[in-house]
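Q: Here's a chain of 331 amino acids. Please give me its 3D structure as tokens.
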Amino acid sequence: MKVVAVGGGTGLSTLLRGLKNYPCEITAVVTITDEGGSSGILREELNVPPPGDIRNNLVALASSENILGALFNYRFKDGSLSGHTVGNIILAALTKLTGSFAEAVANACDILAIKGRVLPVSLKMARLLAVFEDGKRIIGETNIVEYAKKSNKKISELALEESVEINPDVQKALMESDAIIFGPGSLYTSVIANLVVDGFAKNVKEARAVKIYVSNIMTQPGETNGYTLSEHIKEVERYVDSKLDYIIHSFPPNNPEVLQKYELKGSHAVSVDLEDERLILGHFSSIAYENDYRIRHDPILLSEVIYNLLSTKAEKNFSGKTGIKQSEVTM
């Protein structure tokens, strides 16, 4: 099966770590609007597309996340390189060396011997533009999140400051895919940030692929304060201009201490406020330690439910049947 996974950094890389263990031809499509941390600095100082989200997904798809993967993810803690990762610097250097960010990413794919491909959604740099419910227009991913947190206003419309066209390789991958997976990841800055690229939604709409959305487990301050599951789905379908075939939603782990930490930051479990035959519910999450305890999708559990879903649908299509019910998916 040809699977295209669409997203940003942490969430998408979590999915890829599990999915690479299955017989799938994987193409990861990654945003080019990140402005935070090392990526933002390299973007401004060297005029190269932000490499951080690309790097995360390259390492996730590496055949073996051994010393090379650790090297790409190594972050300097002091000196003039403080805050930068080795992989970000390598991707920036390869971009300058080859004159092409796409070629730089392709070379990094070879270095890490990844299973599949990682593609930037566009070959040009872009900045996000958000219009909030109070009419305020904010440019830049970091500024958008900061304003949302400060004002507690919702995003009414997301676009790019200047339109950029879809990467031709991404266009080809979408049209040839058997499945397109959106997320997991930040609703606006990771998932929808791809959908607003010129030509992306059109190609998704025309693709004959199964369209799957992996919802966030927790609400995200600065993006989805108070959003229910139906609101997440509504926004994805609005920007992709297509009806999703399946929605996968995971409940958080039953760990009161960790959940309380999230609640203190204004983050809560996404509430399930709909009954829908497209909906697949389950416990596909775990707690990971990343400087603190974080609730994440579990790579193995999430990829298993997706692969079983796609395999079951493929078998039914082959036998002349259509559709799949939640009860028919092995979890």
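Q: Can you summarize the key feature?
A: The chain has three domains: 1-31+165-299, 33-120, 127-161.
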